[in-house]
Structures are given as C-alpha cells and as structure tokens.
Amino acid sequence: MVICCPGAIDNNFHCDKKKDDKDVSFDIFDDKFISSLSYSSKTGDIKSSEHQYDKEINDILNLNNKTLSENRRRTLKGVIDYLNQKHSANWPKNAIREQLASWDLKDKDGRFKPYCGIVELSFGT
C-alpha cells in the first residue's frame, strides 16, 4: 500500500502489517474507491459503500480498530472545536475553505496530516 503509518498502535496491527501478504481488490488512488468512502463523525469509523471494499477495510486492513477510529473522531472534533472557538456556531465559508486547504497540504516529507480524510470528507462535500 502506501507508507503512511507504522502499521501498529499498542501492538494492534493495521494497514500493511495487518494485511501481510493478503490482497485487496481496490487501488487507494482510484477515484471509484475514494468516492465510495465515508466516515462516521460519531465513531470515527471509515466505511465504503462497496461491500467488498468495506469488508477489506475491516477484515484485511483493520482500519476501524478502536485506536484509529478514536483518533479520527478526535481529529474531526478538534477541527470543529477550533472553528467554534474562532467563529462561534456560524462558520463562514472562507473559514471552512481555509481549514480544508490546510489539511490538503503535505509536509516537508511529502506526507499529509494524519487522519486528513475525515476532515476533508466531512467538510469538503
């Protein structure tokens, strides 16, 4: 897949470490796969509208383990809290665009911010 994380948190494997030599049927850069994704803002879980992809996300890659889901949920909550603190409950469109732009930037090593997907999909649509 893509080098984006160590593949284990508290000895709970996910991503490539969990995948091992098993195959997944999707390409993470394919628009069909990306457009099938959504997140639960309540739990932080990632899901796909395509049954096979969703099964592989959970069973092969373990992307909804407790820690990853909670980290995604907390990331989204942090962005919401920031927007509420700066703009009360009525967020101007430019504030949302500014947040999205900052989450779409790569760092000096060419990596996106961790859990950027939940922020981008929650505010970008």
Any overview of this molecule?
- The protein is mainly alpha-helical.
- It has one domain.
- The chain contains six helices and four strands, in the order ββααββαααα.
- The strands form two sheets. Strands 1-2 form a two-stranded antiparallel sheet. A two-stranded antiparallel sheet has the order 3-4.
- Strand 1 and strand 2 form a beta hairpin.
- The protein starts with 7 loop residues before the first strand and ends with a helix.
List keywords for this structure.
125 residues; mainly alpha; two-stranded antiparallel ribbon; two-stranded antiparallel sheet; 6 helices
Rg, Cα atoms, Å: 15 Å
Round the mean pLDDT to the nearest integer and report it: 86
Structural class call reads: mainly alpha
- The CA-CA distance between the termini, in Å, is 26 Å
Strand content: 5-15%
Biggest sheet statistics: 2 strands, antiparallel
Largest sheet strand order: 1-2
Helices, by number, come to 6
**What is the approximate shape?**
globular
H-E order: EEHHEEHHHH
Q: Which regions have little confidence, pLDDT < 50, spanning 5+ residues? A: none
Domains (count): 1
Helix percent reads 40-55%
Q: How many strands in all? A: 4
